[in-house]
Amino acid sequence: MTNALLRAEHLTKRFGGLAAVNDVSIDLVFGQIHAVIGPNGAGKSTLTNLLSGDLALTSGRMVLGDQDITGWPMERISRQGIGRSFQKTNVFLPLSVFENVRLAAHFDLAQTQQAIRLAKLEHQAQTVASNMSHGEQRQLEIAMCLATQPQVLILDEPLAGMGTVEAKRMIELLHTLKANHAILLIEHDMDAVFALADVLTVMVNGQVIASGTPENVRADATVQAAYLGDAHE
Ligand code: ADP
Ligand code: MG
After folding, report:
1. Per-residue pLDDT averaged across 33-50, rounded?
2. Superfamily classification of domain 4-81+152-231
3. 35, 93, 153, 164: least CB-packed within 10 angstroms?
4. Ligand 1 atom 27: residue of nearest CA
């Protein structure tokens, strides 16, 4: 048995005839980052939507702590302690950092301030989101994700579209957050994945083709052939 905080077992999501997520089991452990990589269309974003409750499972089981949360609606899953960020930036551009996070925190001031602090955005609390760089907006999304004080963070490509400096800052932030959360990280940036991941899972065509320590997965011949070889070209 593992001491996983979130256990997802045999998750499947069908869209008509397509099994976008096909019998995927994944554990998230407090204090660890579990990275999921795979080519476009592998089912990574669909997996995040199943874990957050944004999409209903076709089949499978999810257990958070000792609570079976299978089939729970998104709002209830969020209240139970799973926070998520989206692949596409999802902030309210006309609003300030403070206002964005306050909305996400359901107007709880203490939670708003703590989330802004954890995301290292105190100095920009009054900055309007539209005046922030892409990387800063992604940082704001992390703050919004932290606003409900989740134990589990589900992050869909938080480094997407970032320059080197912004990516480095985000990697440092994720490294800090890992101490107090169980994190699922979907990411294409292999340097970030290998810098951050404690566990690495590779998905192709909705299925897990390898999972284990980053070193073992990197050395796996199936993974080399299916994915990593191409990603490093
Ligand atoms: P990834 O994030 O790994 O690129 P996705 O989870 O976005 O992959 O997509 C996996 C597969 O599921 C793709 O073939 C995609 O077209 C399909 N898909 C995703 N969302 C939907 C949807 N809402 N309806 C139908 N097909 C979908
Ligand atoms: Mg995706």
Report:
1. 97
2. P-loop containing nucleotide triphosphate hydrolases (3.40.50.300)
3. 164
4. 15
